[in-house]
Amino acid sequence: MTDSITEQRLVGGPRPDLDLTQAEWQSSPQGVGGVQIAFVEGYIAMRNRRNPEVPAVIFTPAEWRAFVLDARDGAFDLT
C-alpha cells in the first residue's frame, strides 16, 4: 500500500504526520460511489475505493466541511 506519509497530499497546506496503515476506511452505506474516507488524528483522509494504492487526499475539518457543503450544492456535478 502506498499510504506513506511522504505520498499523502493535504488540500491547501503542508502534509500532516499521519499513519494511514491502520485507518478504518468507510464507504457509503448505499454502496455507491468510488471513494472511502477515514478519520485519523483529527484529519479526514479520502481515497479511491477502486484503486486504494493511490495516495489519499488529506483534509482538515474545515476543508472537509467546505467540500461536503459544496458537494451537496452540486458544485462537483459533472452531468
Write a structural description.
The longest helix is centred in the C-terminal third of the chain and has 12 residues, at 61-72. Helices cover 15% and strands 22% of the residues. The protein contains 1 helix and 4 strands; from the N terminus they run E-E-E-E-H. It has a 4-stranded mixed β-sheet with strand order 1-4-3-2. It starts with 8 loop residues before the first strand and ends in a 7-residue tail after the last helix.
Structural class computed from helices and strand pairing: alpha+beta
> How many helices does DSSP assign?
1
The order of strands across the largest sheet is: 1-4-3-2
Number of strands: 4
Biggest sheet layout: 4 strands, mixed
Characterize the overall form: globular
Q: Give start-end ranges of low-pLDDT stretches.
A: 1-7
Query: Which bin fits the share of residues in helices?
Result: 10-25%
Order of H and E elements = EEEEH
N-to-C terminal Cα separation, in Å?
A: 32 Å
Give the overall pLDDT as a whole number. Answer: 81
Q: What percent strand?
A: 15-25%
- What is the radius of gyration? 13 Å
